[in-house]
Design goal:
It is built from 14 helices and ten strands. By secondary structure, the protein is α/β, with parallel strands linked by helices.
């Protein structure tokens, strides 16, 4: 929920990760100049390199031809298998064109999305010529129109000079406010770029933390973001998904539970509907006593039975104050207070089977 202290918690997590030697990348589904400014101040205090797309575009054209193919396809929402297959074929032929470097800008790629240009590039390669012969010039032109539109929508947003390796701390805005078409294209492209970078393009093996703020928007623009969470663990990359409420984790309960099951730690601020989060913390067994009352009061009889109770009661989450959080991990839960970043530390509560009062 808004107004609960979420932004301060993000800054604390980023600061602690940086101090532990991590590279930190914040991908923001709802671009915020204020958050970018806070991160820049954090970088200045820590004396580290900071890059942000609010000032300089990222270079998202690095990688192999197949890496670029995945990114280009991720900008599209295909409804027909034919067009998906045809688009992949045309792009593959353009990106793998022999005797020329891999395109690293729209100016280099778009002229190749033309039947005559591709036939010329693949002259002497019978298999590829056969593929092109089976595609009409009109079909290839339709595919080219898609990417001319994407190039116009993105402008120079992905044609910069810095990339993930160049920053200790980076802020990446997914599109500009009010431009949903741009946000969809940028999100699809950047998710694929991040994963190909994490999987093999990194110049070092430095641990990396990627924070997805307003994850619901990023996932709506780029469904592959859901797979990114699971794939990242294979490459030594930590992922933090930041949402306003439980529904922000995905379009359906199956996706939400899948993502919740893929993470080890859950941090929650105040929520209006906290039952789903409380369920993730689990229950513990306790005893419940009853006494029998007669007309004259207790009869001396009663019973005792085992019962399951929330480790973190939903009402506790519903009543959290600004800056208070509940942390759930490994079957345990605790209540904590998050100080402003200038205090340089998180104040933890005691780890117990139930949530305790903040320290």
């Amino acid at each position: 929920a808004t107004g609960t202290g979420k932004t301060v918690t993000i800054l604390i997590i980023a600061m602690l990760a940086l101090q532990a030697g991590f590279r930190v990348i914040l991908v923001d589904g709802k671009p915020s100049p204020a958050v970018a400014a806070e991160l820049e101040q954090l970088a200045a205090r820590e004396g580290i390199a900071f890059n942000t797309t609010t000032r300089a575009a990222i270079d998202a054209w690095r990688g192999s031809p197949d890496d670029l193919l995945d990114r280009l396809l991720a900008t599209q929402d295909f409804t027909e298998p034919y067009w998906q297959a045809a688009t992949a074929t045309v792009l593959r032929l353009a990106l793998h064109a022999p005797d020329r470097p891999t395109p690293n800008s729209w100016d280099q790629l778009l002229p190749l999305l033309d039947k005559t240009a591709l036939l010329k590039a693949w002259r002497g390669h019978p298999a590829e010529i056969d593929l092109l012969t089976n595609l009409t010039a009109a079909d290839i032109a339709s595919i080219a129109f898609r990417y001319h539109g994407i190039a116009h929508t993105l402008g120079g947003a992905l044609d910069g000079t810095w990339t993930w390796d160049d920053a200790d701390l980076a802020y990446v805005a997914v599109g500009e406010p009010g431009r949903s078409a741009q946000a969809r294209a940028v999100a699809g492209w950047l998710i694929e770029d991040l994963m190909s970078w994490a999987a093999g393009r990194r110049r070092d093996h430095r641990p990396t933390l990627i924070l997805f703020d307003e994850f619901s928007r990023v996932a709506a623009y780029a469904p592959a973001a859901v797979d990114c969470v699971e794939r990242s663990r294979e490459h030594g990359v930590g992922i933090a998904l930041i949402v306003q409420d439980w529904t922000g984790l995905g379009p359906d309960d199956l996706t939400r539970r899948r993502l919740a099951g893929a993470v080890r730690t859950i941090i929650t601020h105040r929520l209006a509907d906290p039952e789903a989060i409380a369920n993730l913390a689990g229950t513990h067994t306790t005893t419940e006593d009853t006494i029998q009352l007669g007309n004259d009061g207790p009869t001396g009889r009663g019973s005792r039975r085992a019962t399951e109770q929330y480790k973190v009661h939903p009402q506790l989450i519903r009543e959290l104050r600004v800056g208070e959080i509940v942390v759930i991990a490994d079957g345990h839960a605790c209540l904590a207070a998050v100080p402003p970043p200038s205090r340089q530390a998180v104040t933890p509560g005691r780890h117990t089977n139930g949530a305790e009062t903040p320290s």
